[in-house]
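Thread amino acids onto this structure.
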């Protein structure tokens, strides 16, 4: 039996009415679904207005505010999925790291992990204790979206991407400290990855249990590694987290950037949908994936700053390249950028729907 039919049988038909969930399972759709990574954020005036009153961690940790921010892009655009407003870094706080979002600098961790003792001291708390606010926000958003039949995506950072922040203490170009620990003290590295994968797996599972209808696993920076290093130092841990998350019974999107040389390994770790960035051609990359895998992507986010005819041309090129093949979720290749013209976002969302509903689907 092929994988799609197994999933279809395991999932009550009622849950599969939305375009987005149908596409996750590789089922035919009436039009290509679209959502945008970081669709709630500073490019929206509504978001900036709330952010002017609350620091980002306060928005994330107040369920009513997180729910409100999640819904802002859903009111403004005809998107096919919502993603819960949170960040990948709060799970590190519960483990004992001191996280702050600094103006102009991005995230900073004031006590980065550098030694075996640092890693040993990390806690592995239950998500209900350390991340209760996001689980509550998921319940609130589900209530709001129920009547519109729009699914809600939960998410987590993946072990490598979270380890990179925890060890570097913030964003990084070359990951000298993170790769340094991996190469020079593999036992400590693996201990850290075991703790992270347990926290991440339980968090994803808790989000599904709270009502998230799909989960995205953000391994944003894992493309910094060689395939051999991915296999040895990352794959077992990402797989462990995803195996726990899978018990939630919802589709999982596995996303990374610059992962063209190791998508087979990301797939081995897990995921029903593979996120593809713009460094690769979507259609030919899709052909290299296991049969039955859905794909998400892959417009370069900078495209949205171009004049509309150019946005349309590039969007059409992606859609034409995979036209008629069930299992494509349109998205950007990475998060939407600050300063993106809102009107272009609206036109993009509407164009993907109208253009693909005109494209004849094979029977
Ligand atoms: C690496 C990463 C982070 N966070 C995230 C990632 C992985 C995704 C990716 O690869 O883009 C994921 C994330 N962060 C945020 C979401 C919300 C949900 C959504 O709408 O997609 C999601 C899915 C909110 C946010 N998280 C952050 C913002 C902007 C901060 C603000 O409002 O001041 C938002 C809307 C802050 C953040 N959070 C992070 C950084 C590096 C920064 C600072 C950079 C910046 O300032 O743009 C870490």
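Threaded sequence (363 positions):
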């Amino acid at each position: 039996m092929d994988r799609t039919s197994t999933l279809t049988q395991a999932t009550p038909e009622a849950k599969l009415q939305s375009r987005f969930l149908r596409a996750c399972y590789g089922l035919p759709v009436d039009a290509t679904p679209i959502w945008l990574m970081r669709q709630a954020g500073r490019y929206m005036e509504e978001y900036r207005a709330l952010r002017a009153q609350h620091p980002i961690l306060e928005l994330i940790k107040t369920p009513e505010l997180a729910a409100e921010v999640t819904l802002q892009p859903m009111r403004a655009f005809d998107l096919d999925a919502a993603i819960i407003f949170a960040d990948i870094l709060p799970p590190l706080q519960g483990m004992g790291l001191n996280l702050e979002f600094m103006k102009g600098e991005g995230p900073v961790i004031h006590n980065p992990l550098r030694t075996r003792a640092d890693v040993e001291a990390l806690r592995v708390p239950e998500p209900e204790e350390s991340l209760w606010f996001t689980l509550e926000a998921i319940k609130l958003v589900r209530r709001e979206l129920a009547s519109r039949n729009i699914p809600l995506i939960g998410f987590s950072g993946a072990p490598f991407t979270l380890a990179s922040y925890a060890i570097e203490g913030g964003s990084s170009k070359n990951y000298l400290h993170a790769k340094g620990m991996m190469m020079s003290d593999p036992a400590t590295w693996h201990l850290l990855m075991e703790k992270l994968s347990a926290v991440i797996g339980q968090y994803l599972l808790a989000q599904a249990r709270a009502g998230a209808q799909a989960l995205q696993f953000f391994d944003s920076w894992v493309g910094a590694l060689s395939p051999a290093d991915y296999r040895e130092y990352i794959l077992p841990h990402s797989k462990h987290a995803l195996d726990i998350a899978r018990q939630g019974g919802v589709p999982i999107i596995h996303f990374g950037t610059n992962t063209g040389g190791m998508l087979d390994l990301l797939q081995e770790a897990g995921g029903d949908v593979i996120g593809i960035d713009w460094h690769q051609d979507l259609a030919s990359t899709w052909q290299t994936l296991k049969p039955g895998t859905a794909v998400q992507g892959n417009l370069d986010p900078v495209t949205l700053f171009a004049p509309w005819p150019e946005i349309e041309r590039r969007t059409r090129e992606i859609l034409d390249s995979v036209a008629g093949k069930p299992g494509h979720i349109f998205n950007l290749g990475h998060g939407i950028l600050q300063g993106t013209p809102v009107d272009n976002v609206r036109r993009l969302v509407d164009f993907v729907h109208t253009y693909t509903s005109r494209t004849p689907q094979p029977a």
